[in-house]
Amino acid sequence: MAALAIEPTVYAANRNGNHNMRTYLICLLATVLFVASLSVPVVAQQNNSEGTTLDKVKAKVAKLGTGEKAKATLILKDGTKLKGYIGQAGSDDFVVRDRTTDSPTTIRYSDVAKVESNKGHSTARNLGIGIGIGAGAFLGILLIAIAHLD
């Protein structure tokens, strides 16, 4: 009887493993960037849908109230932009006072295209900043992971 010879089997490391992982991460990165680019116009579109009707303008001015804390930015239908605070509000018009000179300007509700309150940052701006920070952190981690694959 002949002795059985056992030959050791050596498995070579798969060099394509790093290449496959890198390809997967690049596809993931491209997908995230594509989805992020689609979400920004939706946020902007929601802000532009604020009402321009007379009742909505009246309601917004009434909600802001009157006095120095009732800061507002008004965009008129002719394109003029006014900043100040609501001094008085009537049934057909209201008075906006300039913050620095305190000069009054009487504006009819029908002349106003948009009323924006200046109490803080808008939700869309805060959402955009949050998405930007999150995407930046994700990309940083992703780039570090790709760099350590080599």
Question: How would you portray this structure in words?
Answer:
- The protein has 150 residues and is an alpha+beta fold.
- The chain has two domains: 16-47 and 123-147; 51-117, SH3 type barrels, CATH 2.30.30.
- The chain contains three helices and five strands.
- Helix 1 (16-48) runs antiparallel to helix 3.
Poorly predicted regions are 10-14, 42-52
Strand order of the largest sheet: 4-3-2-1-5
Structural class: alpha+beta
Main beta-sheet strand count, sense and barrel state: 5 strands, antiparallel
In total, the number of strands is 5
Number of helices: 3
Outline type = rod-shaped
For the record, the CATH class of the largest domain is: Mainly Beta
Instruction: State the end-to-end CA separation.
Output: 51 Å
Under CATH, the topology of the largest domain is which?
Answer: SH3 type barrels
Going by CATH, the architecture of the largest domain would be: Roll
Which whole number gives the mean pLDDT? 77
Beta-strand content bin = 15-25%
Q: What is the domain total for the residues? A: 2
Q: What value does the Rg take, in angstroms?
A: 30 Å
Produce a short descriptive summary.
It is built from three helices and five strands.
Features:
five-stranded antiparallel β-sheet; SH3 type barrels; about 150 residues; 3 helices; alpha+beta
